[in-house]
Amino acid sequence: VDKERTFCMIKPEGVARGLVGEILTRIEHKGYRIVALKMLRLTREMAEKHYAEHREKPFFRELVEHITSGPVIAMVLEGPGVISGLRKLMGATNPQEAAPGTIRGDYALETGQNIIHGADSLASAEREINLYFRPEEIMG
Ligand code: DAT
Ligand code: MG
Question: Is the ipTM of this complex over 0.95?
Fold first, then answer.
């Protein structure tokens, strides 16, 4: 669907390293529309909701510490196939396995510092968009 939407976040290390412009450029050059965007610092509660699917993982605590460690950029992206398309722009979860040319492949080395988050399915995209944005904050 042309109006498919996904949720994307530039994680604290991406903001701290000054990669916001580079990442937004890649997203826009691909042709996706940024239909909502904000900078915020996650509370522990928000982080635990965001990563609820990983609650039982050994790295959950670390994950919550990390995502709350500094400001992030949260956004809603729109375009044909944007959910899987963003995942392709991001590259593999482990940046050492991410292909060159992908965001993680080009700018990261550690799984725990992999710069960018993107929803992995339609259900996740809808859940995450609603976690961060009110309907009136999303430009149609
Ligand atoms: P992705 O961010 O590619 O969707 P995921 O949903 O499996 O990956 O995991 C969420 C985040 O958790 C990931 O971006 C980095 C961290 N993570 C994943 N696997 C990890 C591991 N084995 N050790 C430490 N951190 C991990
Ligand atoms: Mg994931």
Answer: yes
